[in-house]
Structure formats: structure tokens, C-alpha cells
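Exercise: predict the fold of this chain.
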Amino acid sequence: MSAKSTTVGALPGPVRLVPLPGLPEVEPGMDLAALIRDAAQRAEIELASRIVVIAQKVVSKAEGRLVRLADVTPRDEAREIAAAHGRDPRQVELVLRESRRIVRRGHNVLITETRHGFVCANAGVDLSNAPGEDVAVLLPEDPDASARRLHEALSTPAGPTPVVISDTFGRPWREGLVDVALGSAGLSPIRDDRGSRDRAGRELLVTQPATADQLAAAAGLLMWKSAGLPVVVVEGFAFEGDGTVREKLLRDPATDLFR
């Protein structure tokens, strides 16, 4: 790797987070990009050369990733797990369908690896803020592809609009929830500072900030479940490059010390 001349420590410009008001309840088949453009126009919020962070749930709703629990027939394994942990066997069945494997279970929670490669609670299957009682919302089939479509639809000749799709994850070793990136397009989801130098002149060898996760976490400060604000526009953040969460942020199991 060629050494970089950049010195980490230069002050970045101010970053502003603007929640986007006025989005309707999103239903399957709706054009989410058009809804975002219309809401931004009404609120006089510029999207060109800004980053748009979008909560996973509205993306899933627009893409029809909804399942009525009444339509789910749980397998024997789902019934056994549900009985052991006081869960609804139909929801457990959906978790199993969305998972490659169960990583761990206990305390009435299933930690699984999803088909995308995310390790999270209940494979992201969620009943909160769902359109109707006993309706589960699943993660998008391909969050990076979803982000790509939205990025292309929102970008204009006036400037690109990178997109980050976020969801709230728990964390090992720490209490509380933090929003992370499930998909991205139009910006590099990780910044490679290796080869740069710190303020003392030492070369950085491993520093790679997870930009997309940091943007998701920042936007999550405004995405209260009760607020109905699933889209946040980020102004003033210097983005560059391109890439997907799956390619850049999911750690290779061969180098993962916790698998």
C-alpha cells in the first residue's frame, strides 16, 4: 500500500442532521424515492450533495417485506424453541426462515446470522410499527441493492444523493441499542486512513472508521420510534467513493475472532 500524505487531525467542517417531516405511512408498492423527494420539496430541504439515511422499516414496507403471522405454519423446531423461551412459534418460524444459523439463544432472545450475513437479534424480524396487529416486518432482501435504487432515483444533475439504510441493533458487552448501516450506495461505507499520519507524525496502520455505521448512528438520534421520522438528511459531510455494506463492513469469518 502506498503511503498517504494526509495528516489525520485536520478539523472537518460542521455536519447538520435534518429530519425529513411529512412522509406518509409507507405501504407496499409505494415509490419511496418519490415520497422522499416530495417531502423534501415541501419542507424546502435540499437533497443534492447530501446524504439520506433511511430507516430499514420504511424500505421493507415499500418492498412488501411483510408477513401476517396468521399465514405462518411453524415447524417443530420453531415450536420447541418458542416453548423454551416463551415466544410466539410463528415469529420464531420467521426468524428461522430468515437465518443461516442460530448463533446463541437465551433470555428470551434469539441471536442469529441472517441470510445477508448480519448477526443480530431475531434476524431483524420485528412487530413494532408494523401495519396491523400480528404483522411482522422482515429486513429487505438485499439492503445494498435497495440503497442503490434509492441513490439512483434521488440523485440529480445538481448533485448525487448517497443513501444509507439503517436499523437498530443491540451490541455484545454493552447495554442499549445503536443504529448501524444495513445497506449503502453512493459513498464508501468505510474510510481507509491506513498510511495517513496522526498529529504526532506516526503512520496509521489499522485505522478504518466505519463511515456508514457512524452516519446511521448519528441519524438514529432523531429516529425515535414514536416520532414518525424515518428519514434524516445529513448536510456538510464530505463523502467520497462508493461501495456496499456487505462487501466492506461485514467481517470475513476467517478473520473474526468471535466466531
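Check your answer against the key: Confidence is low (pLDDT under 50) at residues 1-9.
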